[in-house]
Amino acid sequence: MSVQTWTYVLVGLTFALYIGIAIWSRAGSTKDFYVAGGGVSPLANGMATAADWMSAASFISMAGIISFAGYDGSVYLMGWTGGYVLLALLLAPYLRKFGKFTVPDFIGDRYYSKTARIVAVICALIVSFTYVAGQMRGVGVVFSRFLQVDINTGVIIGMIIVLFYAVLGGMKGITYTQVAQYCILIFAFMVPAIFISIQMTGNPIPQLGMGSTLNDGSGTFLLDKLDGLSTELGFNEYTDGSKSVTDIFAISFALMVGTAGLPHVIVRFFTVKKVKDARKSAGLALLLIAILYTTAPAVSVFAKTNLINTVSNEEYSNMPVWFKNWEETGLLSFDDKNEDGKIQYVADKSKNELTIDNDIMVLANPEIADLPAWVIALVAAGGLAAALSTAAGLLLVISASVSHDLVKKVFKPNISDKGELWVARGAATVAVVIAGYFGINPPGFVAAVVALAFGLAAASFFPAIVLGIFYKKMNKEGAISGMVVGIVLMLFYMAKFKFGWFGGGNASDWWFGISPEGFGSIAMIANFIVAIIVLQFTPEPPEDVQEIVENIRIPSGAGEATGH
Amino acid sequence: MSEKQKKASAYWKENLRYLFILLAIWFAVSFGAGILFKDSLDSVKIGGFKLGFWFAQQGSIYVFVILNFIYVRLMNKLDNKYGYSE
Predict the structure, then answer these.
(1) Distance of CA A254 to CAs A251, A266, A492, B19, Å?
(2) What is the per-residue pLDDT for A564?
(3) pLDDT tens digits, residue range A542-563?
(4) Could you give the CA distance from residue A431 to residue A395 in angstroms, rounded to a whole number?
(5) What ipTM was reported for this prediction?
(6) A516: helix, coil or strand?
(7) Where is pLDDT greater, at A28 or B84?
(8) Which one of A43, A75, A85, A200 makes the best mutation probe of the B interface by having the most chain B beta carbons within 10 Å?
(9) At CA A233, angle to CA A216 and CA A312, rounded to 5?
(10) pLDDT exceeds 70 at position A443
(11) Over the stretch A230-277, which tens digit does the pLDDT of each residue have?
């Protein structure tokens, strides 16, 4: 069978599976819709969390980014996994004990204020929308390359599928589909990695293959070989970065804190029964994520070495089929500047003739390594699983923010459970349409904004939640001003250095030498400082709120998550 | 302070101590070994890996996973000790 037939078969089967699960587990109440009825087992929740968290960015883009960034790419590996430690230790158990449906619920109740709740809703919407647009684009890329459909048609198919199971099943449908999606995406990621690891180093474990010697009998270590190839072509050594230590530090920190503050990940811990289960499922989620995250840097090394060996100084006319296929998508392009018919892939921009999009490294990797057709098709199904699972989780946060936090808690408190469920479904539908629009017409800055969603989460939620748990005397005035200052500062820095507003600027104008991606760390610190200063001049929180804080610190008696 | 509150605050203190130790390790393997001391650790090689690079792209993640499970164990024990487990 050809790659295309295989892709149709595998993608068709997985989609049928997702829809089947959605019908089987459709939501009957708001509780089903928001927290899956609150009775998900820690393992299922861990798998769902892992799929929810690993997005198109983790599956499709990350290994590619690391391929081209080398050591500098470590920020994503450490940042996105290290954040789980913060989440598991500082947030998950306490938020589970608190036992409400959404993150704005916590902020609104802990800071006894509608204003705080609304600020939290706005932050959640900004973070989730920027993130979901990136997922839709990921869906479009996979469809356009592997199913040869138009990228727009691809996005629309993706929208319909997500709409179907998110709107019908709510958190319950999403949770069980995500369990299936985790299995598919991890299998799809590991199979080609293991194949290529054996091919290049003879070691079937990619994590070890990456540090082994090459299979060609030369006895050279793979990483030394890649360092050599890189410097030969004028790039930095692969194992050595070009970013400053300060910036690497700041970006890693912003990604960690941002991960811990992402509302769609936090809400997953409301779906288990007990505090103990919340801790355990955070641990399992990280283990399941780590399987992909420790394999990804190995894939980066294999793919980069293979790529250089295949294209560097070779005749353009001798390029394999995958090269031409990807050229058609526009994600890879060759411009024969010196007209010698050969491909010069070098660091010097005026001489470099090959432009490669980060996103294709993982998708093209099995083709570059000449693996069987079903493996290539599997990667397509895995990429879709990763993108769809995250998109669904985000849509749920968006719809819960609107139906629960705004309509029920602010505008129409006496709405019936059934009415709220319909508002939630309506909000999810509108959110899918908006996300699809951005997927089809991606504003040029989508990719940049997705990375910055973490900065925004770091600057707004993380301090407010941590202070809410660990600082009993923190009051609403402090928390609200902290969140506002944090998110405004982050948006300002992003607008200034990414979009050139407020006079723009380049790398030499960065504050403290920190890039916009890493600025979330600074904005987060500003949030903490402002909150603590404002606290000194404003009244203590009321007695009953301080009691809530004492209560969430004790694990027993969590009861079920409730919205009332 | 009531007996109940005393128990709760003793539990909280032990919890904070665990968090402090675990987060110190979290910081040491990632920001320490993977970033701040990366260059000096790189002079040590294990197999094909320079040590600092290994911590940044592999080692820190393994330690994170282990830390999470140690935390689960410690907290389960602590819950039992104070009778908060259910």
Answers:
(1) 5, 17, 16, 20
(2) 47
(3) 999 999 899 899 988 766 565 5
(4) 6
(5) 0.94
(6) coil
(7) B84
(8) A85
(9) 60
(10) no
(11) 988 888 888 888 888 899 999 999 999 988 888 888 888 887 888 888
Q: Which helix (H) or strand (E) element contains residue A356?
A: strand A354-356
Residues 61-80 of A with CB under 8 A from B: 66, 71, 73-74, 77-78
- pLDDT score recorded for residue A561: 61
- Where do we find the tokens 């820095």? A493
Q: What is the rounded CA–CA span in Å between residue A162 and residue A156?
A: 10
Question: Would A69 be classed as within a structural domain?
Answer: yes
- Structurally, chain A folds into a number of domains equal to 1
CB < 8 Å to A294, chain B: 58, 61-62
Domain extent, residue A34, equals 3-448
Here the CATH number for the domain that contains residue A294 is: 1.20.1730
Instruction: Give the CA distances from residue A83 to residues A115, A208, A455, in Å, rounded to whole numbers and listed in that order.
Output: 28, 25, 13
A486 closest CA partner among A509, A505, A467: A467
Residues shown for chain A: 564
Q: Is A248 on the interface with B (CB under 8 A)?
A: yes
Residues of A within 8 A of B36 (CB-CB) are 245, 249
Which residues on chain B are in Cβ contact (under 8 Å) with A301? none
Least confident span in A54-63, A79-88, A183-192? A54-63
Structure tokens, A440: 């089809």
Closest CB to B56: pick one of A78, A211, A553: A78
Helix (H) or strand (E) holding A231: helix A222-232
CB-based contact A88 B71, cutoff 8 Å: yes
Q: Is there a domain that residue A467 lies in?
A: no
Which tens digits make up the pLDDT trace of A470-493?
999 999 999 999 999 998 999 899
Q: Classify residue A309 as left (phi > 0), alpha (psi -120 to 50) or beta.
A: alpha
Q: Which amino acid is at A505?
A: G
- As to burial, measured by CB atoms within 10 angstroms (0-12 exposed, 13-18 middle, 19+ buried), residue A19 is middle
What is the signed CA dihedral for A115, A119, A120, A121, rounded to 10 degrees? 100
Tokens of A441: 């017409």
- Give me the residue from B23, B79, B86 closest to A89, CB to CB: B23
**pLDDT value at A446 more than 60:** no
**Contact at CB, B79 and A283, closer than 8 angstroms:** no
Instruction: Tell me if A558 is assigned to some domain.
Output: no
Contact A136, A394 (CB under 8 A): no
Of A223, A248, A252, the CB nearest to B49: A223
In the numeric block, which tokens belong to residue A156? 């629309």
* Cβ neighbours of A224 in B, within 8 Å: 48
CB contacts of A252 in chain B (<8 Å) are 30-31, 34-35
Task: Compute how many other C-beta atoms are within 10 angstroms of the C-beta atom of residue A223.
Answer: 24
Distance CA B66, CA B70 (A): 6
- With respect to residue A562, please indicate whether it lies within any of the assigned structural domains: no
| Mean pLDDT taken over chain A | 86
**Do residues A337 and A349 touch, judged by C-beta distance below 8 A?**
no
Is the pTM higher than 0.80? The answer reads yes
